[in-house]
Design brief:
The longest helix is centred in the C-terminal third of the chain and has 14 residues. A six-stranded antiparallel β-sheet has the order 6-7-8-9-10-11, covered by helices on one side. Strands 1-12-13 form a three-stranded mixed β-sheet. The chain is an alpha+beta fold and 373 residues long. It is 16% helix and 17% strand. It has two domains: 181 residues, no CATH class; 109 residues, no CATH class. The chain is globular.
C-alpha cells in the first residue's frame, strides 16, 4: 500500500497561480497519511453529501484525520467519520448475475468497454451496466450524459489471474443527482463477494487496494453524474451503436468522436482524459485550487483548442517540485511538472489514488509527445 493521500496531496495540485510565486517542494517519499482535519471541507465537501453512498460523519473524504483515523483506515487514506452501507451486502444481491456460481449475467446487464483505460497497476477490468426497463440516457448535452434513476454499473478488478473486487455505482435520485458507491471483495473460494465499505489494503495478499466509500467520491465527484467512462468520448463506437440500436440514447452522437492531433497527441490526450480528467475538471471540488483541465470534448476538432493545450502548455504551477515550475514545457519533458508527477509514486504522484506502480509505457508516450511539441 502506497502512502495515503491526505490534505497535503490535495493541495499540491497541477495548476496556475497568477498572484503567488511557486512554493518549493522537494520529493521526500511518502509517509502513510497526513494528519489534520481535511483540506477540503471539515463537513464533508468531498467525502460526504450528495452521492456519497451512505457515508456518515463530519470529516471530509479528502484529508480525514490521518492515516490512523478512528473508525478504520480505508485503502485510500484515513477517514475520521463513520462509514455505513445500507445497500446489498453481497454482490449476488446487486442484480449483476442471474447465477453467480457460473458468472452468468442477468438478462438486463450488458458488458461495455472504454477507449482510454484508467491505469491501476496493470489490473485487468471488465465493466457492466444496466438501465431500468423503458428508460433512456439523456444525451441532450453530449459531453454530460444524464442517467435515469436506477442506472447501475459494475467493474471487476483482476490481477495475477485472481478476481479481487467488483465496484458498483448506482443512481439513487435526481435533482441533484445522488449516487451510491461501494466495492465488493471476492471471497477466496470465488463463491460471492462481500461489501467492504471501509475498503481493504493489499487485498488477498496482493498490492491491490480496495477503496473505501469516501475514496470513491474523490474521483467520481469530478462529473455531475458521477459515472465515469460511460460517455460519447470514452465508449467505443460499437458500444454506442448498440445503445442507439436499443433505443437507450435520446439522441445518438451524429458521428464517431476522433481525438484531434497526430498519433502522439491522440495517445497523450486519450491517456490524460482517461486518467486525469475526472479530477482535473471544472466540476470537481479541486477545481477551486487549480485551472488545469485534462478532459476532451466531442466538440474538439483542433488539438491546440483542447482544454489540455489551453490550460497546460507553458502554464505556471502553484508549486516548485524538483525544479519544475510549469505544467508542460514544450520540447522539455524533464522541465514539465506533469511528466515529473506521472513518473513517480509518492505523495506528489499523479494520479494520487489507485496505483502504486508507474505506468512505464504511458510515461514514455507522454515524454515523446512533450518532446515533439
Amino acid at each position: 500500500m502506497r502512502g495515503t493521500v491526505g490534505a497535503f496531496a490535495v493541495l499540491v495540485v497541477l495548476g496556475c497561480s497568477e498572484s503567488e510565486p511557486p512554493t518549493q517542494i522537494q520529493s521526500t517519499g511518502g509517509s502513510a497519511g497526513v494528519g489534520g482535519s481535511g483540506a477540503v471541507g471539515a463537513s464533508g465537501a468531498v467525502g460526504g453529501g450528495s452521492g456519497s453512498g451512505g457515508v456518515a460523519g463530519s470529516s471530509g473524504g479528502i484529508g480525514g484525520s490521518g492515516a490512523s483515523a478512528a473508525g478504520g483506515v480505508g485503502a485510500f487514506g484515513g477517514y475520521g467519520g463513520s462509514i455505513t452501507w445500507d445497500g446489498p451486502q453481497t454482490l449476488s444481491e446487486t442484480g449483476l448475475f442471474s447465477d453467480i456460481a457460473t458468472r452468468t449475467l442477468a438478462s438486463d446487464v450488458r458488458q461495455y468497454g472504454v477507449r482510454n483505460q484508467l491505469w491501476t497497476d496493470a489490473a485487468s477490468k471488465t465493466r457492466y451496466f444496466k438501465l431500468p426497463t423503458g428508460t433512456q440516457i439523456d444525451t441532450t448535452v453530449m459531453d454530460a450524459w444524464k442517467f435515469p434513476v436506477g442506472a447501475t454499473a459494475w467493474k471487476d478488478f483482476e490481477s495475477g489471474g485472481k478476481l479481487l473486487e467488483t465496484r458498483m455505482v448506482a443512481k439513487l435520485s435526481d435533482n441533484p443527482p445522488e449516487w451510491s458507491y461501494v466495492a465488493y471483495r471476492w471471497r477466496d473460494d470465488g463463491s460471492d463477494a462481500d461489501a467492504v465499505p471501509y475498503g481493504e489494503a493489499d487485498t488477498q495478499g496482493t498490492t491491490h487496494d480496495i477503496p473505501n466509500i469516501p475514496a470513491c467520491k474523490e474521483c467520481h465527484g469530478g462529473t455531475r453524474e458521477y459515472f465515469l467512462g460511460f460517455s460519447a468520448v470514452q465508449l467505443p463506437q460499437s458500444d454506442i451503436d448498440q445503445l442507439a440500436a436499443a433505443g437507450s440514447l435520446t439522441s445518438p452522437p451524429m458521428a464517431p468522436f476522433v481525438i484531434p492531433g497526430d498519433a502522439k497527441a491522440q495517445a497523450a490526450l486519450g491517456y490524460l482524459h482517461g486518467n486525469c480528467a475526472h479530477c482535473h475538471s471544472a466540476a470537481h471540488p479541486l477545481a477551486m485550487y487549480n485551472n488545469f483541465r485534462a478532459g476532451l470534448s466531442v466538440t474538439n476538432t483542433d488539438v491546440a483548442a483542447t482544454a489540455l493545450y489551453q490550460t497546460g502548455l507553458n502554464v505556471s504551477t502553484s508549486h516548485d517540485i524538483d525544479g519544475t515550475v510549469m505544467i508542460i514545457v514544450p520540447g522539455q519533458p524533464d522541465q514539465s511538472q506533469l511528466y515529473n508527477r506521472v513518473n513517480r509514486r509518492d505523495l506528489l504522484a499523479m494520479p494520487p489514488l489507485g496505483t502504486e506502480q508507474v505506468d512505464v509505457s504511458s510515461v514514455a508516450l507522454l515524454k515523446a509527445w512533450i518532446e515533439g511539441l
